[in-house]
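Data follows
____________
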Amino acid sequence: MARRAVHFLGWDGAPIPRVVDWLRETLGAELHEWTIALPGGRAVRTLRRALAADPTGAGAPEVLTGGALTDRLLDLPGEAASRLARTLCWEQVLRGARPADLRLLAGIAVEGDDDGRLRGLAGQLRQAHADLVGAGLGVEQVLACEVLAARPRERERWQLFGRLQGDYRSLLAEAGLEDPHDRRREALDEGRLRTGAQVVLVDLAEPQPLRDAVLEKLDGTVHHLVLAPLDEAHLFDGDGRLLRDAWLERPLQIALDDWQVVADPAAQCEAVLAGLAEASLDGETAVGLADPRVLPELTEAFARQGVTLRDGSGAPLQKTPELRLLRLVASALREPTPRSFADLWRHPWFEAALARAMGGEPAPIGDLDAYVTAHLVDDLREELLGTRRRETERNARIQRALEQTEALLTPLLRAKGRIETLEALRALIAEVAPVAELDSNDPAHQPRIEALRQLARILDELAAVPQLIASGRQPADHLERVLQVAEDARVPPPPPQPNAPTVEALGWLELAMDPAPRLVVTSVLEGLVPAAAALDSLLPAALRRDLGLPSEEDRLARDLHLAQVLCASRRTTWVTPRLGPGGDPTLPSRLLLRASAAETAARVRHWTEGGRRVPVASPARPPLEPPARLRPVEPLQSLPVTAFRRWLQAPFLFHTTIELDLRACTDDAREIDAAGFGTLLHGALEVLGEKDLCSCADPEVLRQALADALSDQARRTYGSNPRPAVALQIEQAHRRLELFVPEQVQRVQAGWRVREVEWRAPEPVQLPCGTLAIRGSIDRIDEHEDGRLCLLDYKSSSKRKKPERAHRTKEGTWMDLQLPLYVHLARALAGDAPVHGGYVALGPDDSNTGFEDWFDLRDHVQEALDEASRIAEQIRSGTLPPTEARYRPFDPFEGYLVGHGLDLAESEEGEE
């Protein structure tokens, strides 16, 4: 039986200095013989640093976390199964279970090859096993609970769990391993404890069944240093553990002046900066993060003030360049799609390695994005589509990159089994990651060095898993397992810069032991403090209470104690935004409302009346300012006639797209866009220029010819096996051409024949101003029996438009110059024949399909030429007029560029 003593250190000062003083005064020269246990690794590091500064030169004690204390006090021979090995073992057990058993455990149908659900279910069973064994419980105690008496299906689940638990233990034993929780419980029951242990617990007041049972059986001495004054001893039991019910009845003593209710996360950033402004920044302040999602916004707000906000918990290993690379490689191995290859090529390390392999040629990411956007393919193993010279050159660059990518990944692709895959993975990282640049003496390189160490440890752990319980058949399976093991790992942040003001950002459970005298706790909201309980279908809250397992009420008591320590030990500000990061309404933490009856109303009023913003009238949008060119450009010699519309709408976009030839580069296309849909129809309609079809009035012949032409065009553009959405759009295009056939028949019967398709002027034609020429391709030119010509432009928008209204407003202002300038281009072709223009509407229904002639077009040609000359002079002048006020941006970013803000796009389907 251990000799135990509880010491109340108070809570009106920084904890670590008080702990150090107590250790030195009480244990003195014998301090090195003791084991000191604290809550959390950061507290351990802080105490070690404080003790290392001991001027007496006394030996250092063993300092470790409360979680590691149990293993230190028990005699544990043999090899314990790692978390990974236990998960894999449970997965093996579940794969051997009947489908009915899996359904009973999970509550839904789970197939034996459903790796994702099996992995989640295995994790749940692993945790249930740990909770029960840690508390010294078995399935028989669970079945005896009153909660299960009236729930026969739940009893059946637990009986099944008991059988699977036996299989799990047998499989582990066959693999030469033992569950660590079973091993600890067995050692405790057999009395295999460290003799003469001398232990100091520092604020380990939260009950932990197994650890408490081990401490109870020790034959040494146990001191428990409790962060509370002696007059609050009634809140703890005789061993210094929290008395849950006593804490749940105690109000949290917090001044309303220390509780700030703000409107939203942006206002929270302002409150944090204001709260810390009164204190010095170097080691004197800390920020508590109840919600890690606010960290990026806080970091940016601090950076604007020249202050570094340092995440004390470090960065997730999953977000390091090393793990991002592995995730992208796994995706490319699992699904070799254009998207997965483009994502892999975008990783800067792989991009550099690919460029080296291609003799310095950059990775053709833009080419691949353009290819996917144009052809919407999901499989790059087929022959690349496109026959034009520019397309074949683009395809050659993509093919070279694909071949070099395969060469870099060949060791992984050819790896057989887990060990070969892990070795190939090490080789890939060594080849791709710029490890040679790392300097172990450079603090800035420490995070990457630590990330590589952790990754090496994970690979070693995976390699050490006995083959009996190892899983995975393909290299991608093993890579995904690496990513799974890395989910909870974090990389420590680099040390603070000596001359840069730095503020630590800490998690909720780390705050009590932090030495900073000034503290601001953010997002003190319900569901975050205390943290919402994880859903557990096997051990729900009612069953946990019946079994005496740690419950939601225990976490609440723990957090009430932590909050009271923070309130009493330093100046602490609590901040609660009324809106969360996603804009959803929030509720304050129940901790803040834990008050006496007299105070509760005041705290509720403080919440409901705080953080409200007085609505103000939105300011009028300022007039659009003419934007400046991004850089000087060479004077244009010629322009396509369609470019004038861009100038009339948004001159800045004319500058970026026409003068600078800038294009959006994306890989998010999932279906044919409006321009691609129009191009598909245009390509099919070119067949009408053939000799036997240009004046054909037979609807069946026309229908078949257009259908065949469209199918050929679709096959050349989107391959023989297009995506389902693309296949549906192709069918829609067929439908539009079928609707067009009767209109074409009537056109021929009215005396018209197709004379030219995709006609281009032999050379650019000068405008009257003499400083600019125009060029263009006319979709179709029809000739009537009487010699008249009609210049037609195909329109695949959903709504039928009259060409005169698309070109000029009711007031006569020009919006487009296309058709009148076509007339000017085609004068050499027309000779003395009368010429007019029009649209061919290819809509989704009868009412939006047909010919729209503009017979009085000739009356506007000279005015259009004068307008084009005026625009040419504007372009030459070097200034950009403001965007036309009625212009609707094509997408939000375009709206931002032209000064409309992030307006939503409002484009019509099929509009070119």
